[in-house]
Write a structure and sequence with these properties.
- The complex is a heterotrimer of chains A (about 100), B (about 190) and C (about 1000).
- By secondary structure, chain B is an alpha+beta fold.
- In chain B, about 15% of the residues lie in helices and about 35% in strands.
- Chain B has helices spanning about 85-95, 120, 170-185, and strands at about 25-30, 30-40, 45, 50, 55-60, 65-70, 75-80, 100-105, 110-115, 140-145, 150-155, 160-165.
- A five-stranded antiparallel sheet of chain B has the order 1-9-12-11-10. In chain B, strands 5-6-7-2-8 form a five-stranded antiparallel sheet, covered by helices on one side.
- Chain C folds into seven domains: about 1-155, 2Fe-2S iron-sulphur cluster binding domain, sarcosine oxidase, alpha subunit, N-terminal domain (Ubiquitin-like (UB roll)); about 165-290 and about 425-480, 3-Layer(bba) Sandwich (FAD/NAD(P)-binding domain), CATH 3.50.50; about 295-420, FAD/NAD(P)-binding domain; about 510-580, BFD-like [2Fe-2S]-binding domain (Arc Repressor Mutant, subunit A, Orthogonal Bundle); about 610-665 and about 755-855, Gyrase A, domain 2 (2-Layer Sandwich); about 665-755 and about 870-880, Alpha-Beta Plaits, CATH 3.30.70.1400; about 900-995, Elongation Factor Tu (Ef-tu), domain 3 (Beta Barrel), CATH 2.40.30.
- The longest helix of chain C is centred in the middle third of the chain and has 15 residues, at about 465-480.
- In chain C, about 55% of the residues are buried.
- Classes of the chains: A mainly beta (about 100), B alpha+beta (about 190), C alpha+beta (about 1000).
- Chains in contact: A-B, A-C, B-C.
Chain lengths: ~100, ~190, ~1000
């Protein structure tokens, strides 16, 4: 069971959280102006990296807040958690590791 | 004409039976009024209860308390008789600020868990660190107990005293879980 | 009473407390402190089971958790029968009934032993090779055979009467294993005041010190040091010392699972103590000090009862005061077994030692042993053993300089202690995802790169000498607790070092020899070599093909020997072969411990409404809806489901029915931007909805498909009372919160779940108004003042209410929201007020039939996550003027706006009006078309309609709205039946009754 640092509540067990998938996919300001191709990518296309991944998490059984996290999908190590709307302090570009 | 009762008493889902496994008492709380307060700014007070305390803490006393569960969310408990007063005071204290004050007196059920081994009992189903350093008196948070969501409040005092709040339909499960856990401690 | 192999003194057993238990029906005498294994050995019993595949007689191999062979069924009373307990770890106690396994008719005479003669048949991959064809043999021949032969022991048939507890715990330092390294680590960590948990699988902490009574630590007897250390730790409030607690799983972020065996060792249990407790520990730092496992020697017939691991012989002698035999041969390729021979000699046994190593490669231990009069044969191999149900001799031979075996010699004996060296127990380290490193000097994999905050100490990382274990343990404890304290321990020297050997050199035909590597799964060296010859090169493949290491002991004794044989066959270095993955659990865990309290009423929360008790006492039958238990129907005496539902359905349309709708999800949406938020979340327009008015709301996901629906009332300018489906309450609130927090944090809106604040009493039918009129105050109920789809606040029976005039039946109806704690009283008052009008309680089944008669959809029944508003004929609800709402863009997706092919909601009228279609039945245009047929859609809802006096059905059919009046064919259990496509409304098609 993961231990996740909620920005508001500190370290809490994974069972209190819900994962919301890839982070930093903003809903288009004007969905009506988006063509079919881009709209389908917004809806359905997600990364599945081996390595550092920016994810949305919701502390559903805690403070109820959504936040972002950088997690290494290989080691399950959380590099950092940060509020919605913010950018991570750490490097996010490191992709697959050996 | 039919004879009907125009005034009804509250029928609470748990009886008032107190269970005392060794070293801990598990007691369904009396009917209380409770409100969920949502507001984005934390200045000032509501009906004398402070808003600016840290997230995951409780202020006030056993009768009138306010638990800050998130950045803009509080759970407030007051005696039933003060429910109307609280709503009136809140309306004036929060006048001009966007907020929601929602009556959840009938949604929530309280169970008081007290005694030397209360933390151990709660840890049968609650995954949090309930040690004195991590969860001292004055702490309050939403969390889990077994498969149910609860709000856990640690009251003031030397003796470990906790309030478990859950939703009405989960009260039978939560109470049963605590009773079962009570059988597992203090023996063997 | 006689225990012929009990030594006259010594051991940690309590000779003042004799005990008696049963083995295969016979009384076994032992002492408090014995394991079942030590008591059996004290009584001269070594034959305790038959092997898995060949049914060969097997004995006790080890003294600890690595025991592969001595698996017993343990009966602790009715319902308390457990198979596959290791005799070496079950504590002997009065009243225990143990039996051997895997034989028929008896342990002594086992028919299955014929497999031993057929062993050439049961080679590696036997199952894969044999049970291939013919295909038709599978069901009748192969599978029953495999099922009968598979598995060890018998699963219990009765429900487990024991209680199992669960406990979450946190600590700064968790120490696994209370041997010298673990104890020293605990001493160091405890002094810092940090929270320490020290868990050990044995009943008594001490590890190897328990069978090393003559050892000295810092000039004192180890036993005294142990007693003082335990007293020191016990006195500290920051230390939890857990005996009988096995750390079995090491998961993410130092989440460690362990089972504490609380009561199995007690002859009687006071109170309601649990049998076991599952600990889930979150540790700041973990110290792995779980020791090491001794390797057996691989030689022909190395599995005869009486052949033990050498160190286990020493444990039985020193810790339990029992001699595994009178004449002992110690066979070894290393030094540690010399201490076994020394202790056995001192205990009065006749001892011979056979060492594979050349004299020149041995240390001073040879001289020391010879000095006490023990014959030592260096440069000798073991080529076989004699005996059947008990070893009677060991066949040894010198290894010549050319590698050939010299003349054989049989050493008569009744007990063999063998040692092929040591393997650090890296299981938990490996589970933690740490990377292992092969250490040439140790001939073992040892912890290398940590993945989590953990460190290993002592034999678990290949440090075998006592002083080293203590010093290393203390250093680990200090470092893990942030202390810089160091301490060096002095201790009597330990005999260490061994020469790795995979298979003992032999002069026998290797194809005829059975030298066991994995005792529990009966895997021989020959099997592993065969697997490699057949092309299996990956160690993971060899493992699965031969099943080596796959038994409940998970290859604790066999792993390194198997790896070594594979490496040898492949002519590769051992690290190039690698090792198989270690997975939890470290040792078997009971299902009870994993389940814990989650059984019966605590299996899952059963959510009930405030009306539940009333429904129970009025004979309701219940159904599960999500976690809720809802009244399904209210049968009167003699009624079945259909009769009851028919009566309830009629009553609602002709009189008045009362229904508990409390489970509906409710959300209070409050704030200055509430209407704007509603506009964005729902397809409908909300800005102009007047206070006190309701609207049916339809909610989509961003992909354009229906997520939920429900009636929404505008309470005030800034407040909406939203209802959701019963099962969708949490999902909808989560969906709304997600958008509010992450996409539109600028909106000033607050959401609060009021699902359980408000109980909902639905009163439906032409007489509904008459029933509540006398009870309601402050609300004008007249149709003009209070029309359909309106909401008013007032009181009912003096209780504040939000009274909705809404209908999910098509009749005049009210949904009376009252605070939950008052709902039962209000319900009872309405019920008595309704009795003169024939008020009828109805359940969810009638609710479903009535809404289907009206063609009202149920989200999750008419929809399945691929259905748009237009598909169910609700396109008209979509606000035309809104630029955006969640899902709007997707309603313009090419696949959504496709002019043909979309499945649309229609009604189906069977030609036979009595035939009720199956929900989920498939629909085709022509039943005579070739297979595979083109499916047009499926039946979503189907009922007998008492009010239409015929069956009705709703269905999703491709281009259904264009098929009105057409005949389609629907699958039934017997073939196809015919039905006509109709509008999806069957009763009161003009919808006039709701306005009554």
């Amino acid at each position: 069971m993961l231990l996740i640092a909620c920005p508001h509540c500190g370290n809490r067990p994974e069972t209190e959280f819900r994962c919301g998938g890839q982070a930093h996919i903003a809903r288009p300001e004007q969905p009506g102006a988006i063509d079919d191709q881009n709209w389908s990518e917004y809806l359905f296309v997600r990364k599945n990296p081996r390595g550092v991944h920016a994810e949305r998490w919701n502390h559903a059984h805690g403070c109820g807040r959504w936040f972002n996290a950088l997690r290494d999908t290989v080691s399950d190590r959380f590099i950092e958690t940060y509020p919605m709307g913010a950018s991570p302090k750490s490097e996010t570009t490191s992709e697959a590791r050996a | 004409m039919l004879e009907v009762r125009y005034r009804t008493a509250r029928t609470l889902p748990l009886g008032r039976v107190e269970v005392r496994p060794s070293g801990v008492s598990i007691r369904p709380a009396d009917a209380e009024a409770r409100f969920v307060l949502r507001v984005r700014s934390t200045e000032g007070e509501v009906a004398g209860l402070p808003l600016d305390r840290p997230i995951n803490t409780v202020s006030g006393d056993d009768r009138r308390w306010i638990a800050r569960l998130g950045p803009d969310e509080w759970l407030i408990g007051v005696p039933e008789g003060e429910a109307d007063l609280l709503q009136t005071s809140a309306a004036s204290d929060l006048a001009g600020r966007a907020h929601a004050l929602v009556d959840v007196s009938n949604r929530n059920v309280g169970i008081d868990v007290e005694g030397l081994r209360a933390a151990e009992l709660l840890n049968a189903g609650c995954p949090l660190d309930l040690g004195d350093a991590a969860f001292p008196a004055g702490k309050a948070t939403r969390t889990l107990l077994g498969k149910a969501e609860i709000v856990l409040i640690r009251r003031a005092g030397a003796q470990a005293r906790y309030r478990v709040e859950c939703w009405r339909s989960l009260a039978t499960y939560v109470h049963g879980f605590l009773q079962e856990a009570g059988m597992g401690i203090g023996e063997g | 009473m006689a225990q012929p192999f009990r030594l006259s003194r010594g051991g940690r057993i309590d000779r003042s407390r004799p005990i008696v238990f049963e083995f295969n029906g016979k009384p076994i005498h032992g002492y408090q402190g014995d394991t079942v294994a030590s008591a059996l050995i004290a009584n001269g019993i070594h034959l305790v089971g038959r092997s898995f595949k060949y049914h060969r007689p097997r004995g006790i191999l080890s003294h600890g958790p690595d025991e592969p062979s001595a698996l017993l069924s343990v009966d602790r009373g009715p319902g308390r029968v457990d198979p596959n307990n290791r005799a070496s770890v079950v504590e002997a106690r009065a009243g225990l009934r143990t039996t051997s396994q895997n034989h028929w008719p008896s342990l002594e005479y086992d028919i299955g032993a014929v497999n031993d003669l057929l062993s050439p048949v049961f080679v590696a991959g036997f199952y894969y090779k044999t049970f291939m064809w013919p295909r038709k043999f599978w069901d009748k021949v192969y599978e029953p055979f495999i099922r009968a032969a598979a598995g060890l022991g018998k699963a219990p048939t009765q429900a487990d009467p024991d209680r199992y507890a669960n406990r979450h715990a946190h600590c700064d330092v968790l120490i696994v294993g209370a041997g010298p390294a673990g104890l020293a680590a605990a001493l160091a960590a405890a002094r810092t005041g940090k929270r320490v948990i020290l868990a050990d699988e044995g009943p008594e902490p001490g590890g190897s010190l328990l069978h090393d009574p003559k050892a000295e630590i810092d000039g004192r007897l180890a036993s005294d040091w142990l007693a003082d250390t335990l007293a020191d730790l016990d006195a500290r409030e920051n230390v939890i010392l857990l005996p009988r607690t096995t750390v079995f799983g090491y998961y993410n972020h130092n989440h460690v699972a362990m089972t504490e065996r609380v009561t199995d060792h007690l002859p009687s249990v006071a109170g309601q103590a649990p049998r076991e407790r599952l600990w889930q520990v979150r540790a700041g730092e973990v110290i792995l000090a779980g020791g090491s496992h001794e390797r057996p020697l691989v030689f022909a017939d190395n599995d005869r009862p009486g052949i033990l691991l050498a160190e286990s012989v020493r444990v039985f002698l020193n810790r339990y005061g029992v001699a595994p035999g009178h004449r002992l041969v110690v066979a070894t390729s290393g030094a540690s077994a010399y201490q076994v021979a020394l202790d056995a000699k001192a205990a009065g046994l006749d001892v011979t030692l056979v060492d594979l190593r050349l004299e020149a490669d041995c240390g001073p231990e040879v001289t020391r042993l010879r000095q006490v009069g023990v014959e030592v044969l260096t440069g000798h191999t073991v080529v076989g053993s004699k005996g059947r149900k008990r070893v009677s001799g060991l066949i040894v031979a010198p290894v010549e300089s050319n590698g050939r075996c010299g003349a054989r010699r049989v050493i008569p004996c009744d007990c063999v202690g063998m040692s092929g060296g040591w393997t650090p127990a890296v299981h938990l380290f490996s589970q933690s995802r740490g990377k292992l490193r092969y250490d040439d000097a140790l001939d073992a994999f040892v912890p290398n790169i940590s993945a989590q905050a953990e460190r290993s100490a002592g034999a678990a990382r290949g440090t075998y000498d006592l002083a080293g274990c203590l010093t290393e343990g203390f250093a680990a404890g200090a470092a893990a607790s942030g202390s810089s304290e160091t301490r060096t321990f002095g201790a009597s020297p330990t005999l260490t070092g061994f020469q790795p050997v995979r298979v003992m050199p032999t002069d026998a035909d290797p194809t005829r020899v059975r030298a066991f590597v994995d005792y529990q799964n009966d895997v021989t060296a020959k099997d592993i070599k065969l697997a490699v010859r057949e092309g299996f090169q990956s160690i993971e493949h060899v493992k699965r093909y031969t099943t080596t290491g796959m038994a409940t002991d998970q290859g604790k004794t066999s792993n390194m020997n198997a790896l070594g044989i594979v490496a040898g066959q492949l002519d590769k270095a051992l690290p190039a072969v690698g090792t198989t993955t270690f997975r939890p659990p470290y040792t078997p865990v009971t299902f009870g411990a994993l389940v814990g309290p989650a059984r019966h009423a605590l299996f899952d929360p059963i959510r009930t409404t405030p009306i539940h008790g009333w429904a129970e006492s009025h004979g309701a039958t219940f159904e599960n809806v999500a976690l809720w238990r809802r009244a399904w129907y209210f049968p009167k005496a003699g009624e079945d489901l259909h009769e009851a539902v028919a009566r309830e359905c009629k009553a609602v349309r002709e009189g008045v029915g009362i229904f508990d709708a409390s489970t509906l999800g409710k959300i209070e949406v409050v704030g200055p931007d509430a209407a704007e938020f509603m506009n964005r979340m729902y397809v409908n327009p909300w800005a102009k909805l007047a206070n006190g008015r309701c609207r049916y709301g339809l909610m989509l996901k961003e992909d354009g498909y229906i997520l939920d629906d429900g009636v929404v009332a505008r309470v005030s300018d800034q407040c909406f009372h939203v209802t959701t489906t019963t099962g969708g309450a949490a999902r909808v609130l989560g969906h709304m919160e997600d958008y509010l927090q992450t996409e539109w944090p600028d909106l000033q809106v607050f959401l609060t779940s009021t699902t359980e604040q408000w109980a909902v009493i639905a009163l439906q039918g032409p007489k509904a108004r008459q029933v509540i009129e006398p009870l309601v105050e402050g609300i004008d109920l007249s149709p003009e003042a209070f029309p359909h789809m309106a909401m008013r606040t007032g009181t009912i029976c003096g209780v504040p209410t939000r009274l909705f005039r809404v209908s999910f039946t098509g009749e005049l109806g009210f949904e009376i929201n009252v605070p939950s704690d008052h709902a039962l009283a209000v319900w009872e008052a309405i019920f008595s007020a309704g009795e003169p009008h024939g008020i009828t309680p109805y359940g969810t089944e009638t609710m479903h039939v009535l809404r289907a008669e009206k063609g009202y959809i149920i989200v999750g029944q008419e929809t399945d996550g691929t259905v748009t508003p237009d598909d169910v004929g609700m396109a008209g609800m979509i606000a035309k003027t809104k630029v955006d709402f969640v899902g709007k863009r997707s309603l313009a997706r090419p696949d959504v706006i496709a002019t043909t092919g979309r499945k649309q909601l229609v009604g189906l009228m069977t030609e036979d009006p009595k035939l009720v279609l199956d929900e989920g039945a498939q629909i085709v245009a022509d039943p005579n078309q070739p297979i595979p047929m083109r499916m047009l859609g499926h039946v979503t809802s189907s009922y007998w309609s008492p009010n239409c006096n015929r069956s009705i059905a709703l269905a999703l059919v491709a281009d259904g709205r264009a098929l009105m009046g057409r005949t389609l064919h629907i699958t039934t259990p017997d073939g196809f039946t015919r039905a006509t496509v109709s509008e999806a409304v069957f009763f009161d098609t003009k919808g006039e009754r709701v306005n009554a």
